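Pasting as-is:
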Amino acid sequence: MFIKSAILISILIQVVAAILAINLTRDAKYNKSWILLTMALLFMAARRVIEFFPFMYKDVSREVAMINSWIGVATSIIITIAIIYIRKIFRMIKMAEATKLVLDRKILRTIIRTEENERKRFAKDLHDGLGPLLSNVKMSISALEISEKIPDNLEVLSNMKILINEAISSIKEISNNLSPHILDNFGLTIALQSFSDKIKKTGLIDIQLITNIHNIRFNYNIEIILYRVICELINNTVKHAHAGNISIQIMKKDKLLNVIYEDDGVGFEIDENIGSTSGMGFSNMISRLNSINGKIVFKNKKNNGFKAVISCPVK
């Protein structure tokens, strides 16, 4: 009696499963593997029904066993074929994921390129538009100084001249930070050396740059992204680390460019601070480097300095 009840429950469950599978066939876009699995479920339900026959007809056990065996063979064949088709689906999913990754990187590179083009345009407008106007004002004040005789007026003109000189210097600095012409003209090493020299002139921190790439030029995206990331690391150290020294090693080995950035500052807990720092932020560094197949690893302990290791494939 127990076996009979178990077979009946099994028949009911498999019939329900087969009906559900049939109802989902349209949602599965009539996929071959899904149709085959649905057929396998129907055959398995049929086997359960055939196994129930001996409880109703005592003389059909031999014929039932034979039919049941052949249905079992057919079910096994159908499931095997379905799995073969499913493997194809998995391969297609992998290919789709790989294609999506490539497209994501292309989109990010396009965004970065557009951003840099806008920086260049804005820097050019500052340099070519506002710069000459201030220079003309400076020349006019210089002419007034020659003709002016009243001491108080001369002092006012002198102060104006100093302020205009500071404005011109600020415009040049902003223009260069927006779109560093040194990077375009001379490459990554010289651009980073120039940026480091400006920081060192403040006397607050010493920066040591060691490299074996010298005048080697790389793809524009690689140069601009590495430049932005390293400059942001320097800015973060200057603003937050209270460090006295920064060491930057840029080494090319075969087709890989490695950057090791270290400071002797106070450090911080990365899990709590990653992506929350001012400026570009660590999460933005990671996404930018991902666009050129680069990686960055932060090795850091609180009160024990900061270290970042960047690796990037190059041609």
